[in-house]
Amino acid sequence: MSNLKFCQINAENLFLLFDNPLPINYLKLERKQWESLTAADFENKPLSKVIHLAHTLIDIDADIVMLNEVGSVESLKNFNQYFLDSKYSPILVEGNSDRSIDVGFLIKKNLPFYFDLFSHKNKEIDLVYPATADKKISYKLSRDCAELRLFKSDVNNPFLIILLTHLKSPLDPERIDPGGVLRRTAELKACVDIYNELKKNHPQTPIMLCGDFNGTASRFNTDPEFNYLYANTDLEDVLEIAQIPLDDRHTFIQVKSGFRSEGRQIDYCFLPETLKGKLVTSSTSIYPYKDQYGSPLKRPDTLEQKAQLPSDHYPLIFTLENMIF
Q1: Residues with Cβ < 8 Å from 32, sequence gap 6 or more?
Q2: CA of 264: how far to CAs of 8, 23, 40, 90, 104, in Å?
Q3: What are residue 114's phi and psi, to 5 degrees?
């Protein structure tokens, strides 16, 4: 038995693509020098933000990091190699994103178990847009519902399964789904159905569901698209299990006019009944970003302050104790 520390974070456009090997002084490059390292269609994440994000993850020191908005497995490998001292094994399967932002994992090396990653990106979702109801169109998840299995010797007999997703955002460029609600509802249902199918096939294996849900999926003021989760599973948010005060659950800060900001929780890690007793409640929190001296940074009130953070989402961290490997 042992403890496992987890971190869930939307890394906000973590693109790290290099056309050539990095120069020795890559940590001190000027902005234009950094930007010139790639001719890829997607700009690399600003160097200062990458360094700050790396310092954050080094400070958190999680055994398993679950990430959203990663720009390919190459980016994840580069982040691990050049900024995390290769202390993790990066693993990612390219999903369906039209922005090339995927979900992936960093798994600390030398843990006493194996892992394998499966994808559910080809699962069709139950979605019909009123504007195109007369057409037979099949849809899939916007990104993926990645399935990470942790096992001792047999991949088909895992001791833990982690589902990681990134549901549809509120953006509606085609103006057929205001707030992305219809698609997010369908994607949430698909993830829950995947969860229940895995639970049926692996009745002795606890299954977690984590990620950026792009809406209020907590038990307080629950957005309607997430009611299906509570009606059809035994899952509960780690922050709810740990009874974290509502004002301390914000994972995303929306800056409004007049130097005002509003916090929301849109990132979640849901645990099944069999894991709730293993949650170390004192370890469960939203991690505050810190300045160069290690002091927590206050919540941003302006877009300029928010732009200085390594991501527009905050990390969610927690530990499970007495896990049987």
Answers
A1: none
A2: 15, 40, 33, 29, 23
A3: -105, 170
Beta bridge partners of 117: 148
The upper half-sphere exposure of residue 275, i.e. CA atoms within 13 Å in the direction of its Cβ, equals: 27
DSSP codes joined into one string, 164-207:
EEEPPPS--TTSSSGGGHHHHHHHHHHHHHHHHHHHHH-TTS-E
What confidence tens digit (pLDDT) does each residue in 27-74 have? Answer: 999 999 999 999 999 999 999 999 999 999 999 999 999 999 999 999
Extract the tokens encoding 313. 């989402």
pTM for this prediction: 0.97
Per-residue CA distances from 1 to 124, 221, 238, 257, 278 (Å): 38, 37, 21, 50, 11
User: Cα–Cα distance between 256 and 201 in angstroms, integer?
Assistant: 46
Residues 6+ apart with CB under 8 A from 65: 6, 7, 9, 57, 88, 105, 106, 107
Residue type, 62: A
